[in-house]
Amino acid sequence: MANTTNSDFIPLGARPIDRAGHHRTDADWLASAYARDDVLVLLMQGGLPLLVRDGGLVWLGPEVAKLAPGSEPLFLGLDKNGTPVFAVEMPGDFDVEASLIAGTGEFTDFRQAMALMSEMEANLASTARSLFEWHRSHRFCSRCGAESVRAEAGWKRACTECTAEHFPRTDPVAIMLAVKGDKCLLGRQKMWPKGMWSCLAGFIEPGETLEQGAAREVHEEAGIHCDPAKTEYLFCQPWPFPSSLMIGLILPAESDEIAVDKNELETARWFSRDEIRRVLAGEHDEMFAPPPFAVAHHIMKEWAERES
């Protein structure tokens, strides 16, 4: 059965702008674009986006240069009108209320912010967060150990000693729903809010395919056997914690006896399709699903809306 949705409609990945990567190496163009009267600049601090108090990003113009002189802007691309869009990481001691933009908004936890931003804003903020986190954790060259510098509008780091070039990487994560007949397998971790259940998930390891990694994770965490060759791809979602690509899958299970690895999960169990439908409708009295900004919600919804 064809999917009822696709990656273009998954939160954090929806409504992307033109990244215009050909401009990243043009220092003169970037400087001119950053100084344009119509430039759009979002601010982040320690991974938190600056949001208007009733929701949505605070957008600034060329005046942002006065707020953080010397900061290196990250070029995010061009919107549908050709307007350049940048992001700036503010220093840890920057205080909104003591600055020129006092009263405009506040830096907000990203998970909370996801529900308050438009689709395009969420995509931009997610991209900026992933890149800023990468720069924060990759200051030194992995080849020689010297400190590297930002390059190409924030999309590369270059070592000034050995000339090695370093590019941001995305970690592939399989997030999957094992199914058998009219039931699906969900698990929960001890740290989660009481009553929340979700799909199993895990990082893909070197030397294995996406399908093999997904089947391995289901078996390791819950003891359920799945045939990698029968894996069904659904959609994916960029996840900036710090920089993953969550790849949604459905795997037909070949066994149903659960054996939970307590190092990975608190518990796991099978749920009927009717139960999942009630969960998604908010009508289940014992459990709830991840929120709609999480790809797990959409995986569960995709399966629940299918015929038995």
- Structural category is alpha+beta
What distance lies between the first and last C-alpha atoms, to the nearest angstrom? 12 Å
CATH architecture annotation name of the largest domain? Alpha-Beta Complex
Low-confidence stretches: none
The total number of structural domains is: 2
How would you describe the shape?
A: globular
Provide mean pLDDT, rounded. 96
CATH superfamily of the largest domain, by name, is Nucleoside Triphosphate Pyrophosphohydrolase
Q: Please summarize the sheet with the most strands.
A: 6 strands, mixed
Rounded radius of gyration (Å): 22 Å
Percent of residues in helical segments?
Answer: 10-25%
Number of separate helices: 7
Number of DSSP E strands: 14
For the record, the CATH class of the largest domain is Alpha Beta
Order of secondary-structure elements: HEEHEEEHHEEEEEEHEEEHH
What is the strand content? 15-25%
CATH topology of the largest domain: Nucleoside Triphosphate Pyrophosphohydrolase
Describe the structure.
This protein is of the alpha+beta class. It has two domains: 7-137, Nucleoside Triphosphate Pyrophosphohydrolase; 171-304, Nucleoside Triphosphate Pyrophosphohydrolase (Alpha-Beta Complex). Helices cover 22% and strands 25% of the residues. The chain is built from seven helices and 14 strands. It has helices at 27-34, 64-67, 110-114, 119-137, 210-222, 273-280, 295-304, and strands at residues 40-45, 48-51, 74-78, 84-89, 106-107, 148-151, 156-159, 165-166, 171-180, 183-188, 200-203, 232-239, 244-252, 267-272. Strands 9, 10, 11, 12, 13 and 14 form a six-stranded mixed beta sheet that branches. A five-stranded mixed beta sheet has the order 3-4-1-2-5, sandwiched between helices. A three-stranded antiparallel beta sheet has the order 6-7-8, with no helix packed on it. A hairpin with a 4-residue loop joins strand 6 and strand 7 (156-159). It is globular. The termini are close together. The model has no long low-confidence stretch (mean pLDDT 96).
